[in-house]
């Protein structure tokens, strides 16, 4: 796989690891990282050997502390900013991956960081991890899906509070409210994520992909249509297995 | 407009709407409903108001008056409904639940964005006990706010839950001693009023409206609003202040 500057993409067995790798700036998400993630997600999506992907941050302090604000305000116009947002749509690409995605979160997980984590299917966090969507404090709103993925994960009232106040959410609260699925000590979080990824990679991959698809598409439509999607996928799977 | 059953005051960028019919637990009748809708319009129209608080006078936030006549016919329902007017406010709304929120009172709380509750308060959607169904948004908002199974239980049984149960469910964001609820709500309102108001309104819009759309549509709404914010003074100021490591001076434009 190609070499990147701001991320590391590794593959072992059926598991791909994506490490956000700008530790000196708490893995802040910048334009370069956007382009490289876009490419890496494309590679993962088309690689049938990758059964599960895990995302994490490099260094001691952070998963990702948010967007790199030093690059903000450089778009030549609003029209172009909007065009670029949809042309290099990392977030749609994230959400359309068929494989299960795990976020292994230690340290700061703010702004774009929590938005990356919310694009994943399972979140594991270390007890000192800190979450938040501080955008409004800077006169902005989240632009990587946070206003959509957060309420879908923790419910509207809790999401509205996080988004309006920008306050920090500690790992224990994140666990209690379902923002993260489980807590794991900082020393072992990556090993624990690897174990979970290996377990899932050992399951029938088509069943995993269909289960993910049924849940994701089903939550986005009426119950009747969701049940149809489930039936169609289940019988397609039966056909593949038989 | 002179109001009998709704008090309205503004302080700085925060408006406080008080349901004021304490002798009947602030039960909402036709007059109060009309006054509350009018207060909502005042919040919308006053550009200096960034955030609004809704609270109740006396012991209760708002409870059901069992002796009140149920509306009959479309026209009467329209006259008694208030949550459409509350939900139409684009600015952040805080419910300061100083006491029980029962029936339509809970529906009012659900039409706000954030809820702070007294530790003594109880919550119920009790219309079923009076032979009715909720008609001010309860059957729609409650299952969207808390797990569906629990919402259905509350709607079908009319049973009440405590503030701490409500907190566990995420139905209220915070619980405070009864006497401190309004103070805490005002402190929270001051915090929200200090952020850029256009960003606060847009984040509310993207989050609330987005839940009514497919994920893909919601993502497009969010992206469009985020780009639209590029045109505001406050976004530029927010960035500048961050890079200069100082507090921002937002101007509301």
List the helices and strands and how they pair.
The complex is a heterodimer of chains A (242) and B (253).
Chain A: E1 7-12, E2 15-20, H1 31-46, E3 52-57, E4 62-64, H2 78-87, H3 90-96, E5 101-105, E6 108-110, H4 112-119, E7 122-125, E8 130-132, H5 146-154, H6 156-165, E9 169-170, H7 171-176, E10 182-183, H8 189-201, H9 205-218, H10 223-241
Helix pairs in contact in A: 4-5, 5-6, 9-10
Chain B: E1 6-11, E2 14-19, H1 30-45, E3 51-56, H2 73-80, H3 83-87, E4 93-97, E5 101-102, H4 104-110, E6 114-118, E7 122-124, H5 138-145, H6 148-157, E8 161-162, H7 163-169, E9 174-176, H8 181-193, H9 197-210, H10 215-229, H11 233-243
Parallel strand pairs in B: 2-3, 3-4, 4-6, 5-7, 6-9
Antiparallel strand pairs in B: 1-2, 7-8
Helix pairs in contact in B: 4-5, 5-6, 9-10
Key descriptive features of the protein:
heterodimer, A: 242 residues, alpha/beta, 2-enoyl-CoA Hydratase, Chain A, domain 1, 2 domains, six-stranded mixed beta sheet, four-stranded mixed beta sheet, 10 helices, 10 strands, 17% strand, globular, B: 253 residues, three-stranded mixed beta sheet, 11 helices, 45% helix
Kindly summarize this structure in a few lines.
Chain A has helices spanning 31-46, 78-87, 90-96, 112-119, 146-154, 156-165, 171-176, 189-201, 205-218, 223-241; strands at residues 7-12, 15-20, 52-57, 62-64, 101-105, 108-110, 122-125, 130-132, 169-170, 182-183. Chain A is an alpha/beta fold and 242 residues long.
CATH architecture of the largest domain in chain A: Alpha-Beta Complex
Number of helices of chain A: 10
Rounded mean pLDDT of chain A is: 95
Major beta-sheet overview of chain B: 6 strands, mixed
Q: What are the segments of chain A in which pLDDT stays under 50 over at least 5 consecutive residues?
A: none
User: What's the overall geometry of chain A?
Assistant: globular
Strands side by side in the biggest sheet of chain A: 1-2-3-5-7-10
Rg of chain B from C-alpha positions? 19 Å
**Extended strand count of chain A:** 10
Write down the domain tally of chain A: 2
Query: How many DSSP helices of chain B?
Result: 11
- Classify the fold: give the CATH topology of the largest domain in chain A: 2-enoyl-CoA Hydratase, Chain A, domain 1
């Amino acid at each position: 796989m190609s070499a990147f500057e701001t991320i590391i993409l590794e593959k072992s067995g059926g598991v791909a690891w994506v490490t956000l790798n700008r530790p000196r700036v708490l893995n802040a998400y910048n334009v370069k990282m956007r382009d490289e993630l876009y490419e890496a997600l494309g590679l993962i999506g088309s690689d049938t050997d990758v059964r599960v992907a895990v995302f994490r941050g490099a260094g001691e302090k952070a998963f990702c502390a948010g967007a790199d604000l030093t690059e903000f305000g450089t778009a030549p116009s609003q029209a172009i900013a909007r065009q670029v947002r949809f042309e290099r749509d990392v977030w749609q690409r994230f959400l359309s991956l068929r494989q299960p995605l795990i976020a292994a979160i230690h340290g700061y997980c703010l702004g774009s960081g929590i938005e990356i984590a919310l694009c994943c299917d399972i979140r594991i966090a270390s007890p000192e991890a800190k979450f938040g969507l501080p955008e409004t404090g800077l006169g902005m709103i989240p632009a990587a899906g946070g206003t959509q993925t957060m309420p879908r994960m923790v419910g509207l009232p809790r999401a509205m509070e996080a988004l309006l106040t920008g306050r920090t959410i500690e790992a224990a609260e994140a666990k209690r409210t379902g923002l993260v699925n489980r807590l794991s000590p900082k020393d072992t979080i990556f090993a624990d994520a690897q174990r979970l990824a290996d377990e899932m990679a050992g399951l029938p991959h088509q069943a995993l992909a269909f289960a993910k698809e049924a849940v994701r598409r089903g939550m986005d439509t009426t119950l009747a249509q969701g049940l149809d999607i489930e039936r169609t996928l289940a019988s397609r799977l039966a056909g593949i297995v038989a | 407009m002179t109001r009998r059953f709704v008090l309205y005051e503004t302080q700085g960028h925060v408006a406080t709407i008080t349901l004021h019919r304490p002798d009947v637990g602030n039960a909402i009748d036709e007059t109060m409903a009309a006054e509350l809708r009018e207060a909502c319009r005042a919040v919308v129209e006053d550009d200096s108001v960034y955030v609004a608080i809704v609270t109740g006078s006396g012991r209760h936030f708002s409870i059901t008056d069992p002796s009140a006549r149920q509306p009959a016919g479309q026209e009467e329902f329209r006259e008694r409904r208030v949550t459409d007017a509350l939900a139409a406010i684009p600015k952040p709304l805080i419910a300061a639940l100083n006491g029980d929120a029962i029936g339509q009172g809970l529906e009012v709380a659900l039409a706000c964005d954030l809820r702070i509750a007294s530790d003594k308060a109880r919550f119920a959607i009790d219309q079923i006990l009076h032979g009715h169904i909720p008609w001010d948004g309860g059957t729609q908002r409650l299952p969207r706010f808390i797990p569906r199974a629990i919402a259905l239980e509350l709607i079908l049984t009319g049973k009440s839950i405590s503030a701490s149960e409500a907190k566990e469910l995420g139905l209220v964001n915070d619980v405070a001693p009864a006497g401190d609820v309004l103070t805490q709500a005002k402190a929270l309102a001051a915090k929200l009023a200090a952020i850029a108001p256009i960003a606060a309104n847009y984040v509310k819009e993207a989050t609330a409206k987005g839940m009514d759309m497919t994920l893909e549509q919601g993502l497009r709404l969010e992206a469009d609003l985020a780009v639209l914010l590029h045109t505001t003074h406050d976004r530029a100021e927010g960035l500048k202040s961050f890079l200069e490591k100082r507090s921002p001076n937002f101007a509301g434009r």
